[in-house]
Amino acid sequence: MKHSPQRFDVDRLSAEIRECYQLAADCARRAKAEADPQLRHDLLDMERRWLFLARSYELTRQLGRSAPSRASQDARAGA
Hints:
Blueprint: H1 5-33, H2 37-66, H3 70-78
């Protein structure tokens, strides 16, 4: 099945969101096991950044789904 360009972007974002959450979880696990306070702090900071990026991608996906398509806007403008 061929995806429309908009659908492909949503699929790509979904994969990127999952990856960000996986990387954040990995950082949290590594931080929990880390004895060095500075490295633990750095890993927790990386976790926060991955979570922020995942949430940014989620917002982008939500906006992409709710925004009217360009073709719909053109059709309404011409009507």
